[in-house]
Amino acid sequence: MLNYILRRILYAIPILVGVNLITFFLFFVVNTPDDMARMQLGMKHVTPEAIDNWKQERGYDRPLFWNDAAAGAGQATETLLYSESTKLFRFDFGVADDGRDIGGDIRERMGPSLAIAVPTFILGLMANITFALLMVFFRATYLELSGVVLTVVLMSISGLFYIIGGQFVVGKLMHLVPISGYESGLDAFRFVLLPVAIGVISGIGSGVRWYRTIFLEEMGKDYVRTARAKGLPEGRVLFHHVLRNAMIPILTGAVVVLPLLFMGSLITESFFGIPGLGSYTIEAINAQDFAIVRAMVFLGAVLYIIGLLLTDLSYTLVDPRVRLS
Amino acid sequence: MNSNRVKRCGISKWLLAALLYGLFPLLASANWNSPYSEEGVESQVLYSSFSGRPKHLDPARSYSSNEYTFIGQIYEPPLQYHYLKRPYQLEPLGAVEMPKVTYLDQQGDPLPKDASIEQIVYSLYEITLREGVQYQPHPAFSPVDEVLLDRMEQLSDFPQPGSRTLTADDYIYQIKRLAHPAIHSPIFGLMTEYIVGLQGLRDQLKEARKESPEQWLDLRKFPLEGVERVDEQTYRIKIKGKYPQFLYWLAMPFFAPMPWEVEQFYERPQLKQKNITLDWYPVGTGPFMLTVNNPNRKMVLERNPNYHADFYPNEGEATDQAQGLLEDAGQPIPFLDRIEFSLEKETIPYWNKFLQGYYDASGISSDSFDQAVQLSGSGEAQLTPEMEQQGMRLQTSVSTSIYYMGFNMADPVVGGTSERARKLRQAISIVVDYEEYISIFANGRGIPAQGPLPAGIFGHQAGEAGINPTVYRWQQGKPVRRSIDEAKALLVDAGYPNGRDAESGKPLTLYFDVTASGPDDKARMDWYRKQFEKIDLQLVIRNTDYNRFQDKMLNGSAQIFLWGWNADYPDPENFLFLLYGPNAKMEKNGENAANYSNPEFDRLFEQMKNMENSPERQQVIHQIMAILQDDAPWLWGFHPKNFGLYHRWYRNTKPNLMANNTLKYARLDPVERNKMRKEWNDPVLWPLWGGGLLMMALVVPAWLGIRRKERQSLRVEVK
């Protein structure tokens, strides 16, 4: 297994190099350092000297890919591509345009993102699986039909509607929880209650239908017939045997998103005023702070690769037939 | 087994504790939906918000209104705007009196007050400071234990913050900082034109930084020719020529004091790594100090315990007394103990929290406009009954800004001084109906502009004398836009009958360069296209991103464009310089985006900019307006109107578009606020019980169904 993990890590390197090259091209070639300077220095009284000065302070005045003025290896290393890329691979994200340390901000904002994402993920998974199993249990009855209609309705509604509607009903009309905001520590509970509930409900439609399909497929298999023939109650057949055997496709969907929970949710965090990484990315895009956007894209790619690796590893845990080689 | 049980019990205990702790505020507090802790409910705490993280809080760098909201309360430049008086009037703040201005000739000898512009080579501003002003408590003023520095995670970790008395050296130090190459002060370029020796200082500093770029530069060692220390409380600034507007710059944070110790303190690498920098942790002598600085969530200003004596103004406008704005006259300020700014990025949650009483004031977004404001028969904005019932107060003010559509005067079709181009511009000025634009796209929040000067700026003329005769005629006591027929007639004169070139017969196509990326922009662009179609002109929208748009403006390849300007200070010079020839955007990178150049305008502008506000100056501005309205280099567009809503407990609010330090005048009635919050936020629980019953109604049949199914299978087995 160790060999397999090492091999996968080696595979990840060219992927990350590719991600780095694409983001470098987008943020330094399509959008030049001059553009960045103009954006950051504002609309008023921006002189060419101020732009040159801004670039010089950040080292953006160096050549992009090749430095003819340097000698030897310096021709390649004393360039923007080399310096920016090596920093990313060292996870040194540098400073944002407002001078704040990006690494520090990421560490600080990871907590609030996880405070929303982890409960939403766990509760959502539990709710989706439970409802899907119940629908399978009541298959071919009016309850299943109603469930299918309800899930289709739920998945047809925009996520934004759940957020605005939830804030309106629970926060504004019923006055049960704060409409938005965040506090650290245990006081965070009342601020995450509504976003988590909305996150779970908005995901139920598609989640339940997905798991229901998986369970129905399992229900047709021989071991289910055998279990029933042995006289096991339907509940036990479903919640014990079918659920365990359906774990591989469940894991495929679930484990791969685990690392991405760190990245937060773009819309939810913005609307609920949660100072997480999702709103951090949105703010950076709006402010055209490419240092942050580049760091977040790179981090997202790393986490996605980790997610895929974890998924493969988890197969071996739930299905002894799977061997990694 | 036992240990497992113990462990499980332990986890359960923690879970229970967490749940109870989380639910406790819900159960204990009357307001379950309060986003704040109970602390501060009864005291002078103002609750406000910010929509995005401020980029800079360093007074030498900061140049946007969202940053001034914070640093305006912390830093004290020599002057400030009077809170109540209009037109805007400067008064001393850090200074004990208004600066004494002396004009000098080439040899540095003083000239009489009425010396001509040609004689004045330098102006000398002598500023005398208040005595005994202390800085806020800050660790920079105490000895720093370098050994413990690594353990310090935030400023509050430092023991025993100190303070010291403000001196003239601190103001001088800050002026030098404007030239620091690493600070990127946005006004450095502008100030090199005025402050003697500023460019030379920049060159010296650049040279010094080459040797050791990371090392702190002690600016006290670098002389600045144009700034002189007279004594502990007095300093002088020498500027080139006569520039009366310099006084307005002295009311901006760029000229606030900066102690050298503070800059040195923040230069420590251990602090920089923790984002503890001068750009994020301001240190000043103002009424408030920043005690919580988390731009990701919350910023808190607290009363500065060392704040000097300061009092609410005793006089204002004639209507201020009736509006209760002078009730606190002569009282010591600030009234507030704390101001909490929460990050609120979306307008809908912000608006709802304002309605619940959790924010004390709010602007009005387009989404909530109809809910808050209705227009009376005479077109006057007034509160809706719902808002009135809540005891809200609406305050409006015309902002000192302008949004305009410009013609690139270097363009061969719409630009230039030819009669053909001028009449084409005039025709377009008539057909683009900004009254309609304001009504459709700004909810009526704007005033159609008659020229570049908004109301409240010297030189602006209201009524018939101030209308733009090219576009309007005065009828029944109000300006009425000229007809489409008149525009068509101008188009014929310009050689484009029916929108076609009279010579070639080809339709005239014009190009509109915009950065229209928002969801409402398509409708806006369609509207512009339709305006041009009124006189059969074809308008092609060339949409582009901000940076490409800037490139087009710099190289002069745009034809028609949208632009705006927000005044730095309330002087006509700050608007009219946008049309001054030597300030052209193309090639000279100035602020004259239309590249307008008219020698007569330039001559009059040069004359006007150095004049004191007087009838003579008004006369010159009148001549300038006549030239501009006839040349029509811009469609003058509109001046936006600001709408502000205030809860009944928020006192002493008067829109002041120039002052940045107005929070020291604000006062609250926390008892009233607490009462209304409770009344407006009583929890509504019946939907919860209803929902519970509904769940039961769904679950019980399902549960019974399961039981029946299980029994059936058992019966089958038994049989």
Largest sheet of chain B: 8 strands, mixed
Q: Separation of termini of chain B?
A: 41 Å
> What fraction of the residues of chain A are assigned to beta strands by DSSP?
under 5%
User: Globular, elongated, flat, extended or rod-shaped: what is the shape of chain B?
Assistant: globular
Total number of domains of chain A? 2
Number of helices of chain A: 15
- Helicity level of chain B: 25-40%
Largest sheet of chain A: none
- Output the structural class of chain A: mainly alpha
Radius of gyration of chain A: 25 Å
Q: What class, by secondary structure content of chain B?
A: alpha+beta
Low-confidence sequence ranges of chain B: 1-11
| CATH fold name of the largest domain in chain A | MetI-like fold
| Name of the CATH superfamily of the largest domain in chain A | MetI-like
**Could you give the count of β-strands of chain B?**
25
CATH class type of the largest domain in chain A: Mainly Alpha
Note the total helix count of chain B: 21
Report the mean per-residue pLDDT of chain B as an integer: 90
Largest interface in this structure: A-B, 72 and 72 residues
Strand content of chain B: 15-25%
Radius of gyration of chain B, in Å, reads 31 Å
